[in-house]
Specification:
Elements: E1 3-4, H1 15-21, H2 23-26, H3 40-56, E2 64-67, H4 70-84, E3 89-93, H5 98-110, E4 114-118, H6 128-137, E5 142-145, H7 159-168, E6 172-176, E7 195-199, E8 210-214, H8 229-232, H9 240-255, H10 257-278, E9 283-285, E10 296-301, H11 309-315, E11 318-319, H12 335-339, E12 347-352, H13 359-372
Helix pairs in contact: 1-9, 3-9, 4-5, 6-7, 10-13
Length: 373
């Protein structure tokens, strides 16, 4: 069986999550919009899930809207701000996920909005002074959209600092928390945000389900029309299997947050130490010794990309990534690595971990690399 170090792309579903979903696959099949005895219990499960998620981030259940995942949540937040909240400027960065970067390009082309992209340093960090100055000079309602933790190199922003800067300029703040929700504690009362996005399959939940948190001060129009589901925010019969799985995965993740963080951090640090001990000229993209995702280690190897190190790892039974899974099939390179000025003549591989990863797997990875390097 392959050794899996691509958890930033997706995680295996937790068996406890799968078990929680089974009754809604095998027997409880009623439509949650139906008012009869087969529909009412399904509606109750959806609202129970909403309350579970809201409680973990200290939000109101009415502020949680289920989506098909992070991409839909991000797109909905951006469009809603421009279409309904009067946003004329969007500030983002060069290393955001493509579902942000491609969508702001669309909004600039088809709506009356200007896009401003913050530069990042070699560690993938924005300059908070630049953000503050940019907000000072812009005339008109502004949205700041910055991901909490970068999916390729792991570098994180300071949510509190960005929130304070946005508040001081009366700007809206949206954060893509797909890589950090259920991996880090988050309290939207202590750290005010207007929108956050989440996807269940990043923390052992099912694919095809996520949520968008919308602060109660904001009213935006639906992305989809044709039904009154999600309090008129998202037409279409709810994904009850996914919603139940999302809630159970959230519950499990927050209940074991500290334990999992300790385990995963230990594995990442062990891999880092063994790489430095066994190989020459190993470098790391991002800021793995600073404020960074403990689930991600982006390694820069002193071999050219044409040596196909990633493919050789795959042949040897090691699953890892050269960057975002959403960019697979392209040959233009990683926009994140380009933005931080990574050496294109070296091979960058992202190893990402989960609570199911083991130290034995790290040791086997090192042995495989010894044979290749």
């Amino acid at each position: 069986m392959a050794i899996y170090f691509d958890n930033a792309a997706t995680t295996r579903i937790d068996p406890i999550v799968a078990e929680a979903m089974l009754p809604f696959l095998n027997g409880s099949f009623g439509n949650p919009s139906a008012i009869h005895s087969m529909g009412r219990p399904i509606r109750a499960e959806i609202e129970k899930a909403r309350k579970t998620i809201a409680a973990k981030i200290n939000a109101s259940p009415s502020e949680i809207f289920f989506t098909s995942g992070g991409t839909e949540a991000n797109n909905t937040a951006l469009l809603g701000c421009v279409r309904d909240l009067g946003v004329k400027h969007i500030i983002t960065s060069n290393i955001e996920h493509h579902c942000i970067l491609h969508y702001v390009d669309f909004l600039e082309k088809h709506h009356d909005v200007a896009i401003h992209k913050l530069s990042v340093n070699k560690e993938g960090r924005i300059d908070y002074t630049e953000l503050n100055e940019k907000l000072k000079e812009l005339d008109g309602k502004t949205l700041v959209s910055l991901m909490h933790g970068n999916n390729e190199i792991g570098t994180m922003i300071d949510l509190n600092k960005v929130s304070e800067i946005c508040k001081s300029h009366d700007a809206l703040f949206h954060s893509d928390t797909v890589q950090t929700f259920a991996h880090f504690p988050l309290d939207v009362q202590e750290t005010p945000l207007d929108f956050i996005s989440c996807s269940a399959h990043k923390f052992h939940g099912p694919k095809g389900i996520g949520f968008l948190y919308i602060h109660s001060d904001h009213k935006i129009s639906p992305m989809f029309y044709g039904g009154a589901q999600e309090r008129n925010m998202r037409a279409g019969t709810e994904n009850i299997l996914g919603i139940v799985g999302l809630a159970k995965a959230t519950e499990i993740a927050f209940d074991s947050l500290e334990e999992d963080q300790k385990h995963i951090t230990g594995l990442r640090n062990d891999l880092k130490d063994q790489l430095l001990e066994n190989f020459q000229d190993i470098q790391f993209n991002g800021d793995c010794d600073g404020e960074s995702l403990y689930t991600v280690l982006n390694v820069s190897f002193p071999v050219s990309p044409d040596k196909m190190l990633l493919l050789n790892l795959d042949v040897s039974g090691i699953c890892a990534s050269g960057g975002s899974a959403c960019s697979s099939g392209t040959d233009i390179g990683s926009h994140v690595l380009n933005a931080i000025g990574a050496d294109p003549n070296r091979t960058a591989i992202r190893f990402s971990f989960s609570k199911f990863s083991t130290r034995l797997e790290v040791d086997e990875l090192i042995e495989k690399l010894k044979g290749m390097l």
